[in-house]
Amino acid sequence: MPLPCGNRVTRLPDYLIKKGLSYVSKHIAIGVPFLFNRKCHLSFCRKVVSSESAFHQIQAMEVEKPWLRSSESDRYSKELDVAVKVVQMVSSLCERVQEHLISESNEQVKSKDDNSPVTVADWSVQATVSLMLSESFGSENVSIVAEEDIQTLTKSDSVGILEAVVKTVNECLAKAPDFGLTGPVRPLGTTEVLEAISRCNSTGGPSGRHWVLDPVDGTLGFVRGDQYAIALALIEDGEVALGVLGCPNYPMNKEWLNYHHRYYRIMSKLSSPTSESWDKGCVMYARKGSGEAWMQPLVRENNRLGLSNLARTIRVSSIDDPALATFCEPVEKSNSSHSFTAGLAHSVGLRNQPLRVYSMVKYATIARGDAEIFMKFAKAGYKEKIWDHAAGVVIIQEAGGVVTDAGGRPLDFSQGIYLEGLDRGIIACSGAKLHQKIIRAVDASWDSSNL
Ligand SMILES: Nc1ncnc2c1ncn2[C@@H]1O[C@H](COP(=O)(O)OS(=O)(=O)O)[C@@H](OP(=O)(O)O)[C@H]1O
Ligand SMILES: [Mg+2]
Ligand SMILES: [Mg+2]
Ligand SMILES: [Mg+2]
């Protein structure tokens, strides 16, 4: 089921609006689940909606469609709908911040106590997602496990960056209607923004619903003008129910990936490519058990296309011959042993150079069939966090792939913020055959490794 990702409101004569609304109401009244033809429904809405209030009426009706809750296959429809829109919204925020970071200065980057980087974007995305989920589901119903806290942000030397966060959040919230969402009626103050960030301090666990957010995954890639992702997932009773990955620098068309990120920058200075020709970013999403994963282009301010019409299903690669397969891994060898994976690649017969990509875009490459294997072997003692994996895992699985630890067991999202009990590392593959070969190779070489 493709989901909407934004609507531009254009003024049309009143008689058309009425006609449009009565068309929608009629279909609801006679119980025609025009969800079956949601593409048509959305492009229809885009054509007939002439004011924000009319648009919100249609949205409200959309939310109350009874059939969304009536069948198991439509479970989490509303949650996924909201999650995709929110990720679209904050992907735009990240693009603006990244552009600014690259062209202006490094003042918007800080180091956390563990020396890892954090930026205006990380905090602003976390605040915005927290606010929009509360707005959509009621703050009392929303538990969020997320990476950032306000410790560094409230230090005395962070006054400038805190101001930038509040400004960035308010600018983003003001654009909520462009994405089919409702933002607050007035700009938020510093305390409210800090509260929104701090509220994401849930520790998850085996029962109940928990949203899991990595506001900017691959912050290092982000500050370097390279790949990064916004990752939002919903865990219910310890299982990942849905996942959304915003990948603002991962093009819809694989071909563009061959160009280095610097090329983007040069290109955007030479000409300002339209999103139609450039197609630079995408959002991917999936619901557990649906057997489908989807991708659609990022909503851009200059993008008035019928974006939901451009949503398409994605599928993992059908390549199962190691000689033809490509594996991807983290860019930084401090995050995953490049020498160990090189040994595995050799023993399994992988011939292609590894694709080193920052962030959960690695999960996206497998889900979309741009690579066949993703491996991560962190140093002993490092504990993987659930927000670095939840969204990517469900998207790969629904796209037809396999994700386990190196012992072949599924990742356990039920034990709080860490993937407790993870056996050695993470292996995601497009299919069972490659997966089995990698697992065997790990077993054969683990004892002689330094890991
Ligand atoms: N020491 C160590 N070992 C393993 N993993 C670590 C380590 N330190 C951090 N992290 C987590 O890695 C996240 C970034 O992973 P990537 O796959 O993007 O790594 S890389 O930047 O491409 O090397 C990164 O996510 P973000 O902080 O969201 O960028 C961290 O959660
Ligand atoms: Mg991360
Ligand atoms: Mg992060
Ligand atoms: Mg981080």
UniProtKB/TrEMBL annotation:
Task: Provide any one GO MF term from the record.
Answer: metal ion binding
Record keywords: Hydrolase, Magnesium, Metal-binding
Q: Which cofactor does it need?
A: Mg(2+)
What GO biological process terms are annotated to this protein in UniProt?
A: phosphatidylinositol phosphate biosynthetic process; sulfate assimilation
Keyword Metal-binding part of the UniProt annotation:
yes
- The signal sequence is none
> What does the entry list as the binding residues for Mg(2+)?
147, 214, 217, 388
Q: Which reaction does it catalyse?
A: adenosine 3',5'-bisphosphate + H2O = AMP + phosphate; 3'-phosphoadenylyl sulfate + H2O = adenosine 5'-phosphosulfate + phosphate
Known EC number: 3.1.3.7
Entries under PANTHER family matching the protein = 3'(2'),5'-BISPHOSPHATE NUCLEOTIDASE, PHOSPHATASE
Q: Which family does it belong to?
A: Belongs to the inositol monophosphatase superfamily.
Protein's name in the database: 3'(2'),5'-bisphosphate nucleotidase
User: Which organism does this sequence originate in?
Assistant: Protea cynaroides
